[in-house]
TrEMBL record:
ATP-dependent DNA ligase family profile domain ranges (all copies): 112-254
Protein's name according to its UniProt entry: ATP-dependent DNA ligase family profile domain-containing protein
An annotated GO cellular component: nucleus
GO biological process: DNA recombination; DNA repair; lagging strand elongation
Keywords (A to Z) from UniProt: ATP-binding, DNA replication, Ligase, Nucleotide-binding
PANTHER family: DNA LIGASE 1 (PTHR45674:SF4), DNA LIGASE 1/3 FAMILY MEMBER (PTHR45674)
Sequence similarity: Belongs to the ATP-dependent DNA ligase family.
Source organism of this protein record: Hyaloperonospora arabidopsidis (strain Emoy2)
Taxon lineage: Eukaryota, Sar, Stramenopiles, Oomycota, Peronosporomycetes
GO molecular function, one term: ATP binding
């Protein structure tokens, strides 16, 4: 369960008075991680046959808190352990808060630390050895006192040029202080930002290294990020690509609907050898022929936009493009104007302009692909 925030003691008492039992208990509220523990005891034994821990979102986090299970199992009262237990229950679900405790002082410790604190601890724990273990190079910036935007912008541009000169892609910018700088595994947010050379330089200035203002309509520039997309369909090749799949229908993932939404076709960036390899692999992933569109796919009604074959969603590819455009041929982001005054008009999706294959992403599953919501954010940034 989750609690509703209340603004005053009076509001709390008013709610209790309206309840059927008109009574409540007041418990300490700890600042930690909410967990739900599932335990199942063997008859007359302290050993648990089932031991699992879940987060508030019902994600299995047993491996993360495995030592907690050992502690709980030791404290369960077993009937043959000489401790009286009134309940005959052999299984239980317990919800609680995991907090960090200082064993010396008995005080609670912050469950998360800022990046500045974590970085200092990292430098204290490890010793650098060039070529083996090295700390990332960095420069700190601050906008806390006064308007430093112009000075800090110049510092970031200079440092970006320096990183690229050493062979790096660009910069990772991470918030240093405050709650937003706390580490959140697997979550995408503006606490971490990446700035690549393609974002701020066009092809004509890449050799000189001079920053320019990016115009998303120029073919020589790229989106502010590559996209991790799922190939859900394939088109037969023609000409020199006859006999293999020549291009592929790509999709984003909509975590709200659970559907894959089309965003464009990609056919460049492949070598002849890689196309043959992909085609051989995909022939085993072709879905049975049906009338219309597979259930988990959201594609427009235009038949010419449908692929020659639909594919099982099993792979993730990294794709780059020059920009995003509105198109009635694709469905990514079609709900972005749902609340606007033009909601009654035919909705357009978002499509990639000049998409190009970059690499395969075997480290990612289809449900970890770029989400449609992220693409909509990129489109809004492009409009600025």
């Amino acid at each position: 369960m989750s609690a509703c925030p209340m603004s005053s003691v009076e509001a709390v008492l008013d709610r209790i008075a309206k309840s059927a039992g008109r009574s409540a208990t007041c418990e300490y509220k700890y600042d930690g991680a909410r967990v739900q523990v599932h335990l199942s005891l063997g008859v007359g034994s302290r050993n648990c046959s089932i031991r699992r821990i879940f987060s508030r979102n019902m994600e299995d986090i047993t491996a993360r808190f495995s030592t907690l299970l050992d502690v709980l199992e030791m404290r369960v009262k077993a009937r043959d352990a000489g401790v009286r237990r009134s309940s005959s229950a052999e299984s239980m679900i317990v919800e609680g808060e995991v907090v960090a405790l200082d064993r010396i002082t008995g005080t609670f410790r912050p469950f998360q630390k800022s990046l500045r604190s974590r970085r200092a601890l990292l430098h204290d724990l490890f010793e650098e050895k060039p070529g083996y273990v090295e700390f990332v190079k960095y420069v700190d910036i601050s906008l806390a006192s006064g308007d430093k935007t112009r000075n800090e912008a110049a510092l970031v541009r200079k440092y970006l040029a320096k990183t690229v000169a050493t062979g790096c892609e660009g910069l990772m910018i991470k918030l240093l202080d405050g709650e937003e700088s706390e580490y959140r595994a697997g979550r995408r947010s503006y606490s971490w930002m990446k700035l690549k050379l393609d974002y701020v330089l066009d092809k004509s200035t890449r050799c000189s290294g001079k920053p320019t203002v990016v115009n998303a309509r120029d073919n020589g520039t790229f989106l502010a990020d590559t996209l991790d997309l799922v190939p859900i369909g394939a088109f037969y090749g023609k000409g020199r690509r006859a006999g293999v799949f020549g291009s592929f229908l790509m999709a984003t993932y909509n975590s709200t609907s659970g559907n894959f939404e089309t965003i464009g076709k990609v056919g460049t960036g492949f070598s002849d050898a890689s196309l043959m390899e992909v085609s051989a692999r995909f022939r085993k992933m072709v879905l049975p022929v049906i009338e219309g569109v597979p259930e988990q796919y959201q594609s427009c009604a235009i038949r010419s936009c449908h692929p020659d074959v639909w594919l099982v969603p099993e792979e993730v590819w990294e794709i780059k493009a020059t920009q995003l455009t509105e198109s009635s041929s694709y469905t990514c982001g079609t709900d972005m104007d749902a609340d606007s005054v033009n909601a009654a008009a035919p909705r357009k999706g978002l499509a990639l302009r000049f998409p190009r294959f970059v690499r395969f992403r075997p480290d990612k599953k289809p449900l970890q692909a770029t989400e449609s919501e992220q693409v909509k954010e990129l489109f809004q940034q492009q409009r600025l």
